[in-house]
Design goal:
hydrolase, three-stranded parallel sheet, TatD family hydrolase, five-stranded parallel sheet, globular, metal ion binding, hydrolase activity, acting on ester bonds, 44% helix, Metal_Hydrolase
Length: 266
């Protein structure tokens, strides 16, 4: 059993639909193609935003035989305050297992121009995570100092997953030393040879390492979109890089999944 700690089902379904030829295309065939990409030997942590919520839920109802853990967050690239009400409703109805992806994105001038809204929705989501004791899945680009400014509250969150960890091993160590129950999720940045990713992976103990694809995003050169099966490439890379026994690492991933999201009897 392996765990993909960050993925986007609705976007994958859309990518599958685009790949099928127009002639004979139907919703049924798109769904069949989509389901053919999924594995029952994997837990998927599905992240979605308010803009795609209804479509995603409808899709998940048709894929109930797979291991899917829904989480919901207000993405920093679209920090729309009106989505706070949607998030509150999902939390109250216990329809999600975590909050995310959320965080800060200063990667482009366009994203940076929405910083005030990013701060507003971040504060709301962090407060909810603390009050309701829900894990957070964090998206952060060129904004780690903003995350470090919230260490006192992040220490109160049961678990904090850094999706596509962008920082250095020193920053990862600092978060842990300051008392944040942080986990660091790695995907195709490892296959691309990104220095920070490789150095942090080398430093971290296996118990703090998570695997993700971010499907259908985070593609390699000449790829149309990322497929769920590519989680095996990420896992193999980590196994080889860290010289880990496969069964031990899979057990750690599954145990982390259960502990982070409060799953029982898996």
């Amino acid at each position: 059993m392996v765990v993909d700690f960050h993925c986007h089902f609705w976007d994958l379904f859309s990518a599958c639909s685009e790949c099928l030829p127009e002639e004979g295309k139907s919703e049924e065939k798109c769904l069949e193609f989509f389901k053919s990409m999924l594995s029952r030997d994997c837990f998927y942590v599905n992240s979605f935003s308010g803009t795609e919520y209804r479509e995603t839920i409808s899709l998940l109802e048709k894929t109930s035989d797979f291991n899917i853990i829904p989480v919901f967050g207000i993405h920093p690239q679209n920090p729309e305050p009106s989505q706070m009400e949607i998030l509150s409703g999902l939390i109250e109805k216990k329809m999600i297992y975590g909050i995310g992806e959320c965080g800060f994105d200063m990667f482009t001038p366009e994203y940076a121009s929405t910083l005030e809204n990013q701060k507003m929705v971040w504060d709301f989501q962090l407060d909810e995570a603390v009050k309701k004791q829900l894990p957070m899945i964090i998206h952060v680009r060129k904004a780690l100092p903003l995350i470090f400014g919230h260490i006192p509250d992040l220490k109160k969150v049961p678990a904090v997953i850094f999706h596509g960890w962008p920082g250095s091993p020193v920053e990862a160590e600092s978060l842990l030393k300051k008392g944040v129950n942080a986990f660091f999720s790695f995907g195709k940045a490892l296959l691309q040879g990104r220095k920070n990713s490789l150095e942090t992976l080398k430093f971290l103990p296996p118990e703090r390492i998570l695997t993700e694809t971010d499907f259908p995003f985070m593609t390699l050169k000449n790829q149309d979109f990322t497929r769920p099966v590519e989680i095996e490439k990420i896992k193999k890379f980590i196994l080889d890089f860290k010289s880990l026994p496969e069964s031990m690492f899979e057990e750690i991933l599954l145990e982390n999944c259960c502990n982070i999201f409060g799953l029982k009897g898996v």
